[in-house]
Amino acid sequence: MKNPYRPILNIPKTKMEKIFDLIGISFFLLSILYIVIQWKHLPDQIPGHFNGKGEVDRWGSKYELFILPMVALFIFLLNTAFEKAPHMHNYPKRLNESNVEAFYLNSRKMLNGIKNLCMIFFAVLNVVIVQIGLARTDSLPPWLLPVFLIVVFIPLVVGLYKQSKIK
């Protein structure tokens, strides 16, 4: 099989990608700060898992609050690394010299949007878990998961649509 055309290009981040990174990182850091500020007020047991209705179905140590930020940080770092290597992403066979930059940029923007929306989701989830631990609410908001799923698919759908328009 012939090797596909995949040059390594240095395409600077767009202003919008930088803004999305700033927003995603800001939400993440603010949620960590919120956990730190509320730490002394938290009981020893906080929600550790939720069922499909958003109700707490397992309680765990408040130290479990560090799991989600670690997962979010891993996702952020992994996706940031993938953003720097768009030549490794999957592309249609029509990728060539004349359209390679458009494909790379579109793929990177799509990944950037999904990455930062995940960061925002993890930040919101951290705050809600603390709120439940402080007995300010008793379950996840019913809109949280459906809204997250819809919002995360927006960059994917937009990116795939834009990809289909690249000649």
Characterise the protein shown here.
Residues 27-72 form the DUF1648 domain. One of its GO terms (biological process) is response to toxic substance. The chain crosses the membrane at residues 20-37, 65-82, 117-137, 143-161. This protein is mainly α. It is built from four helices and two strands; from the N terminus they run H-E-E-H-H-H. The protein has helices spanning 15-38, 67-83, 100-133, 144-165, and strands spanning 45-50, 56-61. The chain has a two-stranded antiparallel ribbon. Helix 1 runs parallel beside helix 3 (100-133) and helix 2 (67-83) runs antiparallel to helix 3 (100-133).
The proportion of residues in beta strands is 5-15%
Structural class of the helix and strand makeup?
Answer: mainly alpha
**CA distance, first residue to last residue:** 24 Å
Largest sheet: 2 strands, antiparallel
- Uncertain runs are none
Query: What does the overall shape look like?
Result: elongated
Please count the beta strands (DSSP E, at least 2 residues each): 2
Count of alpha/pi helices:
4
